Amino acid sequence: MSLYLEYIKEIATREKELGLHPKPIDGEELTSEIIAQIKDTGNEYRADSLNFFIYNTLPGTTSAAGVKAAFLKEIILGESVVAEITPTYAFELLSHMKGGPSVKVLLDLALSDNTDVAAPAAEVLKTQVFLYEADMDQLEAAYKSGNAIAKDVLESYSKAEFFTKLPEIDEEIEVVTYIAGVGDISTDLLSPGNQAHSRSDRELHGQCMMTPKEQQEIKALQAQHPTKKVMLIAEKGTMGVGSSRMSGVNNVALWAGKQASPYVPFVNFAPVVAGTNGISPIFLTTVDVTGGIGLNLKNWVKDVDAAGNTVVDDNGDAVLKEAYSVETGTVLTINTKEKKLYNAGTELSDISAAFTPQKVEFMKAGSSYAIVFGKKLQTFAAKTLGVEADAVYALSKEISHEGQGLTAVEKIFNKNAVGVTSKAALHAGSDVRVQVNIVGSQDTTGLMTSQELESMAATVISPIVDGAYQSGCHTASVWDSKAQVNIPKLMAFMNKFGLITARDPKGVYPAMTDVIHKVLNDITVDDWAIIIGGDSHTRMSKGVAFGADSGTVGLALATGEASMPIPESVKVTFKGEMKDYMDFRDVVHATQAQMLKQFGGDNVFQGRIIEVHIGTLLADQAFTFTDWSAEMKAKASICISEDKTLIESLEIAKSRIQIMIDKGMDNDIQMLNGLIKIADKRIDQITTGEQPALTPDSNAKYFAEVVIDLDLISEPMIADPDVNNPDVSKRYTHDTIRPVSFYKGERKVDLGFVGSCMVHKGDMKIIAQMLRNIEEQNGSVEFKAPLVIAPPTYNIVDELKAEGDWDVLQKYAGFEFNDDAPKESARTKYENIMYLERPGCNLCMGNQEKAEKGDTVIATSTRLFQGRVVEDSAEKKGESLLSSTPVVVLSTVLGRTPTIEEYKAAVKGIKLTDFAPPLHELSKAPTAKTISFYS
After folding, report:
1. Is 436 within a domain?
2. CB 507: neighbour CB atoms within 10 A?
3. Is 923 domain-assigned?
């Protein structure tokens, strides 16, 4: 059977079983067959082939785009005649293909001696922004040889006419509201993790947003208000918590945005989303990428009494009152010039933050990519012509405060800033382009990143990126049919693009399913680095790391740059002493709980950098804090490290990078060897005193300063989803932190999970010692609930084997992973045994393995969102309680949460957390102490 007939068969199946349109075409072979049928005027499939060619072939650098561009060139030159595609129409189709093969065709035509096609090709070329070095070199060479067309195109580029000639955004945008949920809305609602396999198939993935009933309600609103945009709202909460989730924004845009091009199916942009407490920082970045609008409604405010004091309820929580209604079906007007939100002429809210000059440019251009590439193209053209570039784009916002020192993140941004005009150091609020040092792509968003790279016509990683990694951890649990199709394809693309890949397309080294955050934490070998990763938990303990959507990851890979404001910082220091039976995870929980109490329930971390002063923590242990900062809704987190500790962390990183090299994972450009050289240079700088470990200036200014009292932490703590809270807006937040005594040793536990990025080697050793303790106390170890253990990396497994701890874990395990025969289907039932699972994300991701519906799970992971780790059953809501490794292990042995006495007995003799005095003064905080940790 021909490829075309196979495609027709697939279309019929797709329509019958899923009710979907034909899948977009990205392959060269099928496109070539379609073109052959178009050329054959008597072919029975010609009409459909024309439709597929024009409307259903993906642009950019897909192999299909290469064939399509070549055929359009034939039509323009008269070498092929297609009645339905005139040369003029062929130029229009090329104009929508974004770059790569289409730009090459346009350049060849524009710079040719054929005057009939050169001028129209040049006019189309002037609208294109996705030009790369080879394209620019061709244009520059033609200009220098006296080509008038080349000069004309360059002059247009130097004026950025590809941007200035675009229509301005509407002054008024009418929206109709749709309450997508009450309380914080996880991106899992918009793009469920268990549907991650379908993210690159945009129409199919769009079916999983919320529920079919809610999808129909959105369509009904659109039918009722055809000239308005539907705005999805998180009522009494924050929109898009937990993840950047480009697929979530894509889904919202698919249902409530507008089509980017009539010739590119299911690629929509410009969604409008909102939340009472705004948009989660990393999700807002994704909204900006697509030229969308993200509003902070502030439609619920704290109630105050006659004396001006905040009214609180019986639990001490602030009582909220409604400032204005946004119930579903409310028509509102966004005035983009006044930057105000109105209802029938009545002003409701100032929304200036959503319409900064930079964000408005993204909206006008349809994406942030077009702005980044446009600026680069304009700079090139002006330099080639020897002229000043026209002042077209909004000036970078450069804010400097004389006499004010710099926070740690301000120092990093100043070091890595690109194109800054100010001679003075920049402070928070400045909006700058920065060089990106480390980039990470994870496997359930990687196919989308590869699509984004294809759409922006990128073919090779930017040479200024120091290190880049493509993980396989999110699909590590089950090597099912979906993974077997998607992952090898992804790894081959990324390997060819220039990343270090978890799987070798040639099979030289075994699959490495190490958790991406742990790998990025190791390959980050400079505390002044900027890291971008395709996951909300891209939060390294060296440098400053930002979780990002698949598109921003693609942009960082292609250009080595990112654009963002310098965030404000909150300084966190510690006083007091930690009890020796407490775990560092309890410090993390206490930080969140004490911060909320100190600030009357207001989360001062949200959207800001947490600058945490725990300088004697090695990188692995410090990562436990920075990782959790995603759940604190922080933009990112920075650990201030002692010189000695940083050197030790860098030496550990070097050893782990060397292991990757020894396994054969380095690539043609010797990226991993390059990272070791960077680490060596950094160690030398610290040792000689040339550049000590990063610290803030003593006169730096912070949005807030938080001092955590360790004396107040007297028992283990649990983050509780509080699923039965009568106030639905308070369910599934990470703000309900309770001591273990709250549960009185009575909360039944159905399953325990130790794993994900929040644990490290120390946690595995703690498990081994606890099992020894329990056996010594009870004569044996019996589990009254299943315990699932997923080590983060293979390195940890190897080290545990060498040190004897793996033998202990094996002794008590009822299941152990086997890489020679990985699971091909997800587990749906669990026995009361201990499972030693493959390194990777496992239950935390929720896309493959899950707990049984309705279970109460206690886990070391970070995700307590509804349906993520455990779904609801008809009888009971699923619960994901989050706690430390010792609490999780003991809970599975007991089948319930432990009492404090049971807990202390189980951890007796285990050095969980050890505090040491600071090696030198890190801050002005009273009695600040720094932390060393069992490893």
Report:
1. yes
2. 8
3. no
